[in-house]
Records
---
Amino acid sequence: MGIWVFCTANFTHIISGSSHWLFLMPINVMFVDVAPFYGGAQRSLYGLVSHLNRKRFRSFVMSGDGSTNGLTARCKAIGVEATFLPVQPWRRNLSGLLRARADFDYVRPKIRDWIGERRIDLVYANGLRSGLLCAMTLPRTVPLIFHHRDYHGPRLIVKYVVRRANRTITVSDFVREHCARIIGPRQARKLSTVYNGFDFAAKEKLRDAYSYRKRFDVSDDIGMIALVADMEPWKRHELFLSAIGSAVERDPRLFALVVGGPRYERVQAYEAGLIAKAEAMGIVEHLAFTGNVDNAMPLIDACDVLVSVAANEPFGRTVVEALGCGKPVVVVRGGGPEEITRNCPAASIVAARPDAIAAACLDWIERSADGDRIACAARKWAARFSIERHTRAVRRIIEVCLS
């Protein structure tokens, strides 16, 4: 009986007659994320790292978030080796270019040292800035997976990173199709859509940390509407404020939450303008700006409906988080939120007009008597985006990339 053995860097096949065994050695994957905060993309990456099979994958993380409860600290807390990369934001001016050049010079030897010392098989770049750093730093012999989460990124950079990457994961078909138009049909064959994954058991613990309605003695007959989004102009907070103004005219008991604050100095003026707009509209008594919060789940749970109004939102994490809490959602047409809620019985997809958004929110609030059925439908839909399904899909892409 003949026996054949053939090896690669990561596994050995042994075939004997009609029997077939596959002995798998661990794959060493280095995850790179240079964002200086713990936002949605970083939450997604942490979920992936924490759920990958430790016997099959050894994870190493390089993160630009050195905060007490940031990505670096969270990875270390679950036993994943992680290091802090002090990479600064790059503005689109001369000082930004100089800052980027300094970051490249600082990061290149660190990445290459980790690749050699830890025998890294594959690098996984989370987001466009991380993808650019890796594309310009990695030896060509090291496979690169680029997780593309942006719609608004510079086209030339997107094209460059996708061409260098062995595979590119997009967070939605909306982003994949947009990216395909940029890079052309030949490179588009390297694109795969994998929706973000959510650990709903962990989300439930975060949600139950405390109750805002009980804490602030909010009556059950007060309808609450939430917008949970980074403080960026393309998130269209002004549209949300206009919708709240329209809704308050019909129901003065309404109260709205704007969850999320400026992460950079350049958007502080944007937030100040929103507050001034709310004052001019006379809705400040119906509105609260919470600023940045580490745990938005209790705020989402306190509300009757969550709204997403961003222009060309790539995915829409907060939409799935709200559905996971059993809350209905209102999203505007276009982008990832429409894609992931299409045909969802707990979602309204409306035109990006204040009156349409307000009417949909009021409709869900008025249907509160049917809350149990709506909550059940919402949670059932959210289950499509489980962290287990996400991890399986990414794992297959890693293995295909290495094969």
Note: DSSP finds 17 helices and 16 strands in the chain.
---
Amino acid sequence: MDLTGIGQAATAAKDILGMIFPNKTEEEKAQLAASLALIQAQTDIDKTEAQSSDPLEHWRGAMGWVCAIAYLNNFVLSPYAVAFGLHLPQVDMTQLGELTVGMLGLGGLHVYQKVNGK
């Protein structure tokens, strides 16, 4: 039993200081837990995709590789081939851009479907 009130004053001061200077360890634990939850959610989505037999998922992956190879050709291979006297045709950037934007849109919708369990 605290007759002088010093214990209560110390507890109140500790609570006030805790509001001004929060415990970083608790905040860091909460941030880590949130990060781990996001990583686990993405891992679950990846596992679901890997087990799926949906041909559209494989089609999207193949189209992603087509886009990547076309960009590699346009921005890496063709410029360096000129230095060796070779001429490599380039993919039209208008069509490649439309394909890439479409793929990104499908990828976003795909993630939306997976997150919502459809």
Note: The radius of gyration is 28 Å.
